[in-house]
Amino acid sequence: MKTVTLPIAFVPLVDAAPLIVAHEMGFAREEGIELDLISAPSWSSVRDMLAFGRVDAAHLLSPVPVAMAMGLGGVTQPISAVSVLSVNGNVIGVSRALEQRLRQAGFAFDFRDAGAAARALAAAAERPLVFGVPFPFSMHVELLHYWLEASDMARVGYEVRTVPPPLMAQALAEGDVDAFCVGEPWGSEAVESAAGALLLPGKAIWSLAPEKVLAVRTDWAETEPHLLGKLMRAVWRAGRWLDSPDSRTSAAEILAHKAYLDLPSEMIDRALTGHFTISGHAEQREVPGFVGFHDGVANFPWRSQAKWIASRLARRFGLDEGQARATAAQVFRSDIYRQQLINTSADLPGASEKLEGAIRETTAVASQKGQILLPPDAFFDGRIFDPEAS
């Protein structure tokens, strides 16, 4: 049988690993497909390549397909998020000037307490701060607003400005932004280049945020279900391989290749192990589960996660929240995930929605094989999101 090659777009980030590993470790080939991985310079490029048919699938920010379905951003091609590629994986960093003021005020850079970090940042700010983010529709933006809007930073004021991930350290060094929220390894790049220091991991704000999704055009998913199934199974196997501690060194070396991240493997290893250097003072911090690719059914596209994203977007853009939630529920395709993975060793949850932020301890939930343990998913402020609430 002739092997089909699928063009797939990605942005050079650690959380593109499931697609890269599916290709490099032969999981895709074992499913009978080849992946033509195309590195894109920005998230707008990835979105447009997917929407206009240049590629069949993409590594995409989880809010992008939701925003497109809500008519935001100017491109409205129906996109399906058929699985979650990664959870968490972002860092928040500050400029050298902000770092110095925070240290002078006695802030300890504990890399854990989001509430304390926001209070310290507000006290240290001498004017409204400019935060760099990779794209207007991104988990980076949603986490920043969720974190800052209820803090003293709302009084101080802040602006969110788009900067492509590989250029974030340069933007910080040149004073274009005062701080940033970006995926790894580009936060660590800011530390290595002496542009700034790391303040928080994104998971300190939401401990189980769906960061990137495997996205395809909805019409392609309907016309090519067999190819989609092969791709989903290959990526699912790659995620399982990536979450094995024994795979981290190999994974970092693969991602470091010139065709992918083109950075030292040691810097990439920080995200995979959760062992961070947060400043030029060589301070080390541990973040267990900094980024996840598989464990705790990380790949399942919970519709409640899509509804949380839609609710946040609706409030920010003045849209009807109920309609936004209903629209978003059709974007995260838990139905396709179940169809394509039911004959694998994957366990499938009994429900497609859950209360977001309600799990404080690892919890067993009903599933097809009775083996699913969901990890904590708390928000830093203890709020719980009910996807069915009006």
UniProtKB/TrEMBL annotation:
Localization per Swiss-Prot or TrEMBL: Endomembrane system
So what EC number does this one have? 3.6.3.-
Keywords assigned: ATP-binding, Cell inner membrane, Cell membrane, Hydrolase, Membrane, Nucleotide-binding, Transport
Q: Look at the named UniProt entry and state the broad enzyme category this protein falls under.
A: hydrolase
Natural source organism:
Antarctobacter heliothermus
Q: Does the keyword Ion transport apply?
A: no
Q: What are the top taxonomic ranks of the organism? A: Bacteria, Pseudomonadati, Pseudomonadota, Alphaproteobacteria, Rhodobacterales
Entry annotated with the keyword Membrane: yes
Q: Which SUPFAM superfamilies match?
A: Periplasmic binding protein-like II
Any single Gene Ontology cellular-component annotation: endomembrane system
- Per UniProt, what is the name of the gene that codes for the protein in this document? cmpC
Q: Which InterPro entries does the protein's record reference?
A: NrtA/CpmA_ABC-bd_dom
One matching Pfam family is NMT1_2
What name is this protein filed under? Bicarbonate transport ATP-binding protein CmpC
Q: Name one GO molecular function term.
A: ATP binding
